[in-house]
Specification:
single chain, 7 helices, 27 strands, binds adenosine monophosphate, binds magnesium ion
Length: about 425
């Protein structure tokens, strides 16, 4: 049985970053740049007012104060979006709004608060200035944020909301990014009913396709749900074919030691198998290999296939540890791991069979430390233990378990604190 790291390595070795494509700017959120982004312009394009007030010559108001105000002639008013075509001469001031280009002759902006206008006086042809200024005070210089021609983001950069904003400020409507992987998801099991159907005796709803599709989408992939294959060779093989156009095929169930667990056999017959068990709990039975065949257009394809365990918690935990890093690699992301932090256990966790345990936990900070409390019973069928958790507490495979008060590494899931993606 191989370790979690060995399994991760084998899976990562089988996938590569996907090709680049142009996408509308907003669709690229969470994707990786496949081009260098240079600025076609200065930002701001012109020197402009950083505050609402009066554009003046600093030399005219040297030494001004509330006791000894400096009187200036008001020559007009300028809103953002317009350019003043005159010049501010000696002894003159131009009323100016934030963002409006600084007029010729002026070198600084006195905020309204430092002028007679602040006292609620009507705007008149004169203004009294209550402060001295240095040139450039309350002025944003042309190109102070971004210089024309400068490299703004290098390829490989992950696009967060701030990158979207910066690229919008440069005028980019679309950018070149590494394509999102398409992940085909097939549930297996004679006991499964599709959402919307009435449950017959002995049936359960197919929840795995949805939790796995949600994880795939959360990880930046495009999930494609293929439905349910029954536990027969024909059913499984014909549904698998529908997944051959994807970049990755995931099945759930049918990989353990039961009479109807045929996914491993199919992998052997329809492709090749790299491993079928990993030393982890939940999730020992996991098959990884490649499926070969012709897609719907008759094109020969070979794609990586992960056969995740059927138990609902196991499929989610194995996804997080083995599938998400592969998706991130295909997306061209650099760091493939999530944050692991030390936390003090508030419950005992036992490890009876020498596997690495990932216990569902709620981690909370207290007095500068993290504390991890288990989310109740840890059976791999108890999916609510997953929905309550924000972390997985990790117990090493060679440890008999950990006690309340021990410090253990916890892998933070933070789904609830992360960005919510609308579709
Ligand atoms: P298996 O690995 O196919 O033996 O499945 C292990 C357990 O997971 C069984 O109790 C199944 O009923 C359950 N299971 C398998 N597939 C699903 C699914 N798609 N949704 C919910 N539970 C499932
Ligand atoms: Mg099954």
């Amino acid at each position: 049985m191989i370790s979690v790291e060995q399994a991760q390595e084998k899976i990562l070795a089988a996938v590569s970053p996907l090709e680049a494509e142009d996408r509308p700017l907003l669709d690229c959120l969470g994707q990786v740049l496949a081009e260098d982004i240079y600025s076609p312009l200065d930002i701001p394009p012109l020197a402009n007012a950083a505050m609402d007030g009066y554009a003046v010559r600093a030399a005219d108001i040297r030494g001004a104060s509330r006791e000894v105000p400096q009187r200036l002639d008001v020559i007009g008013c300028l809103a953002a979006g317009r350019v003043y075509d005159g010049t501010v001469g000696a002894g003159q001031a131009l009323r100016i709004m934030t963002g409006a280009p600084l007029p010729g002759g002026a070198d600084s902006v006195v905020p309204f608060e430092e002028t007679s206008e602040a006292k609620g006086k009507a705007v008149t042809s004169e203004v009294f200035i209550y402060t001295g200024l240095a040139p450039r005070d309350n002025v944003r210089l042309a190109g102070e944020d971004v210089r024309r021609g400068a490299l703004i983001f290098a390829r490989g950069r992950l696009i967060s909301p701030a990158e979207v904003g910066v690229m919008a400020s440069l005028g980019y409507r679309s950018v070149r990014v590494v394509r999102r992987p398409v992940v085909a998801i097939l549930a297996t099991g004679d006991e499964l009913a599709e959402l919307g159907e009435n449950l017959l005796p002995g049936q359960i709803y197919n929840s795995n396709s949805y939790s796995v599709a949600a994880l795939a989408r959360w990880s930046g992939a495009v999930p494609r749900i293929l439905g349910i294959a029954r536990d027969t060779r024909d059913s499984l093989v014909s549904r698998l074919r529908e997944g051959l156009e994807a970049d990755l095929l995931i099945t759930t169930g049918g990989v353990s030691a039961g009479d109807f667990d045929i996914v491993k056999d199919i992998l052997v017959q329809e492709g090749d198998i790299t491993f079928c068990t990993v030393r982890m709990k939940p999730g020992k039975p996991i098959a990884f290999g490649r499926i070969k065949g012709k897609d719907s257009r008759g094109v020969a394809r070979t794609i990586p296939h992960l056969g995740l365990p059927g138990n609902p918690v196991s499929s989610m935990v194995t996804f997080e540890l083995l599938v998400r890093p592969a998706i991130w690699k295909m997306l061209g992301r650099g760091a493939l791991t999530r944050r692991i932090v030390p936390a003090i256990l508030e419950d005992d966790v036992e490890n009876k069979d020498g596997r690495r345990v990932f216990a569902r936990a709620v981690v909370t900070p207290r007095d500068g430390r993290y504390y991890a409390r288990l989310t109740g019973p840890q059976g791999s069928g108890i999916l609510t233990s997953m929905s309550d958790a924000n972390a997985l507490a990790i117990i090493a495979e060679d440890s008999p378990g950990a006690r309340r008060g021990d410090t253990v590494p916890v892998l933070r899931l933070d789904w609830k604190e992360e960005l919510t993606l609308a579709v």
